[in-house]
Write a structure and sequence with these properties.
Blueprint (H helix, E strand, L loop, with lengths): L1 E3 L7 H4 L7 E3 L9 E6 L2 E6 L9 E2 L7 H15 L6 E5 L2 E6 L5 H14 L8 E4 L7 H9 L3 E4 L6 H10 L3 E4 L8
Parallel strand pairs: 1-2, 8-9, 9-10
Antiparallel strand pairs: 3-4, 5-10, 6-7, 6-8
Length: about 180
């Protein structure tokens, strides 16, 4: 199979000479559809496409992120954007070391991510965590911290954001609020 934006007329006899060769011509890039659709029993779900990664970067934890943590957090946030909600991505040295997605609760997604990291013997000491939506309680931050994570990125917006922020301040953990949720269903 050959894929190209175009094929020269003079090249076509050579390219089509092989019996089972398939030629595919790329179409010009089209703007992304602002809506995504999922079929459901007796209906469909439409949701807006998630084009934005971070609307702002607000460091609210007990310390600012290091350059390495910032890079890991940005990468984790990109991964998290593409996971099915509820989504958690654990990253260390620009490598995904654990993920939990499609769970019924954020804490279940976190436990799954930690379990997978441990299953593959990835160290979580110094890792970072991205969440596709806010932490409704500080339990996720506490569990992640006890597992070795030192920095968090999440949209914020919970009425109890202060609990997670206070835990980070007390324990000298970095936390970034982005203002951008990434629900994917």
């Amino acid at each position: 199979m050959l894929i190209a934006p175009a094929f020269e007329e003079a090249a076509l006899p050579v390219l089509t000479a092989k019996k089972n060769r398939i030629l595919l011509q790329l179409q010009p890039h089209q703007a992304a559809n602002p809506l995504q659709y999922r079929s459901l029993l007796n209906g469909k779900l439409s949701q807006s496409s998630d084009q934005l990664l971070i609307s702002h970067w607000n460091e609210v934890g007990g310390r600012d992120t290091t350059p390495e943590e910032k890079s890991d957090l940005e990468f984790a946030n990109i991964i998290c954007k593409h996971l099915k909600s509820n989504a958690i991505a654990l990253v260390k040295h620009l490598q995904l070391v654990g993920k939990g997605c499609g769970q019924t609760s954020r804490i279940d997604a976190l436990r799954h991510a930690i379990e997978k990291a441990n299953q593959f013997q990835f160290s979580l000491e110094g890792a970072v965590l991205a969440s596709d939506a806010f932490f409704p309680f500080n339990d996720c931050v506490q569990i992640a911290h006890h597992a070795g994570m030192v920095a968090f990125i999440q949209p914020g917006g919970s009425v109890r954001d202060g609990d997670s922020i206070e835990y980070c301040k007390t324990n000298q953990l970095a936390m970034v609020l982005t203002g951008m949720r990434h629900f994917k269903h």
